[in-house]
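Tutorial, part two.
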Amino acid sequence: MNTQKIGFIGGGNMASSLLSGLIASGHPASQLWVSDTSAETLARLASQFNVNTSVNNSDIVDAVDVVVLAVKPQTMKSVAESIAAEIQAKKSLVVSIAAGISQASLSAWLGEKTAIVRCMPNTPALVLTGATGLHANSNVSEEQSDLAENILRSVGIALWVETEGELDAVTAVSGSGPAYYFLLMEAMEKAALELGLNAQTAQLLVQQTALGAAKIALESAESPEKLRERVTSPNGTTQKAIETFQAGGFVELVSKALNAARDRSVELSKGN
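Running the prediction step on this input gives:
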């Protein structure tokens, strides 16, 4: 595939991380465009990445092959409607990374024939270790699908789901997921303090343990269940801790929490 011209409408943290990832993966900065309402944001991005910038969204659409909508959900309707004519004229691919905005709403605002890929990235994309779920509408070509996937792969893994509704599950698992791990780390640090460790030691031990466990899981062909069993010696300290978690309904609570997150994602999507 030839190098494509990619434009970002909205220059916030996620757009910045995608620009960084694309450039790191070899995409020429000269083929990247960004628009934003903040002149300060545009100046920073131009200085940091040497990309093209404009305060005019239409300029971006006119210059590129794919438009990444990276604005806040509450401003998406007005932004989309303001560029709809240009999008339809150029038959641009539109990639939306706004949470809770359905493809039906995007099609209503941009035009029903618009090729749209809706994505659900997560915050680790900011450090190029993200996990993103993607879904394309029926107007997206195979080449456009590859392009959207390449954009999101620049900041981590990118996985396609078969139905748009599955993005609500993606939201519950990976979109909100980092907060679950932070909550566990927070609780472990608090318990470590109660056990007599100082704050710095507790923090470093918890952070490095989380990193190490994730690295083992990523590099192993075995399931988390098997990995847990391998480090749980019979009648040892780990078994006592695991039994305490299980007695407190840990697995059931995780399921209940993810279902609650999925249900809320569904509610938010219906509102848009």
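The first strand starts at residue 6 and ends at 9. In part three we will examine how such features are distributed along the chain.
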